[in-house]
Design goal:
The chain is α+β, with helices and mostly antiparallel strands and 238 residues long. It has two domains: 8-145, Jelly Rolls (Sandwich), CATH 2.60.120; 155-237, Winged helix-like DNA-binding domain superfamily/Winged helix DNA-binding domain (Arc Repressor Mutant, subunit A, Orthogonal Bundle). The chain contains ten helices and nine strands. α1 crosses α2, α7 (157-167) runs antiparallel to α10 and α8 crosses α9 (195-207). It starts with 7 loop residues before the first helix and ends in a 5-residue tail after the last helix.
Length: 238
């Protein structure tokens, strides 16, 4: 990306404010940004393919991307993660150089920065300050995947649903974000369940006045009571 590009300052500030590049010196950040090019996708576009992530590395500027796996024999889907602004993809391909069998779908209009993955690999050796933030980012992702896998084995669907809600709730405002306008099927795909089971639990949470559903948007009505019910139901954790 040329420094004369009209949006160059916007992209530079976006990278500067991200947790991934916060430790990188300005001159290095300029060097990195000049290697990127930008691309936009519309809602429901398949943003990355299994092949493209072997050769390209992506930084999400705006919007959200659903990363999932599908069994086409059964039509069952599991949502691995939701990428948002500041996320990188595909870190697995970056590290092991093998294909990553996933489906990536834009949940709305999105914008990404793209760089050849071989160049991104060079950053691991050339820029120690990039590694200082990349490794904690990787650790956070691994911890999330470990928790998700453990939850599906150890906890019932109600608990997995409430954990998902609490994980996406701002602790200061009590507001639910990211999944607040997801369909019941999408939520089910995030916790390894099915739509009718999730729908039943959501109706129960509504009946207990813990959440409200307005125009398919979920909102938390009583965060304190939701936490109390969760702890009571899983008292052995506390």
């Amino acid at each position: 990306m040329n420094k004369e590009t009209s949006n160059y300052a916007y992209y530079f500030n976006n990278l500067r404010q991200s947790t991934i590049f916060v430790e990188v010196e300005d001159n290095v950040l300029h060097e990195i940004l000049e290697l990127f090019h930008s691309k936009t996708y519309k809602k429901d576009d398949y943003t990355f393919t299994t092949e493209s992530t072997l050769y390209n590395f992506y930084y999400v500027v705006s919007g959200n991307i659903e990363i999932s796996r599908i069994n086409f024999d059964t039509d069952r889907e599991f949502i691995i993660s939701i990428l948002g602004p500041g996320d990188l993809f595909d870190v697995i391909c970056l590290l092991d150089k093998n294909e990553h069998d996933i489906i990536a779908t834009a949940l709305g209009d999105i914008e990404v920065l793209i760089v050849p993955i071989e160049i991104a690999r060079e950053w691991l050796y050339k820029h120690p300050n990039f590694n200082k933030t990349l490794f904690p980012y990787l650790g956070k992702q691994l911890r999330y995947l470990e928790e998700t896998a453990s939850d599906m084995v150890l906890f019932d669907t109600w608990t997995r649903l409430v954990k998902l809600i609490l994980r996406n709730t701002d602790k200061n405002t009590g507001k639910l974000s990211l999944i607040n306008n997801f369909s019941h099927e999408q939520i089910a795909n995030m916790i390894g369940s099915v739509r009718n089971v999730v729908n039943r639990h959501i109706q129960d949470l509504k009946k207990d006045k813990l959440i409200t559903v307005n125009r398919k948007n979920l909102e938390i009505s009583n965060i304190q009571k939701l936490l109390e019910d969760f702890k009571k139901r899983n008292s052995y954790l506390y």
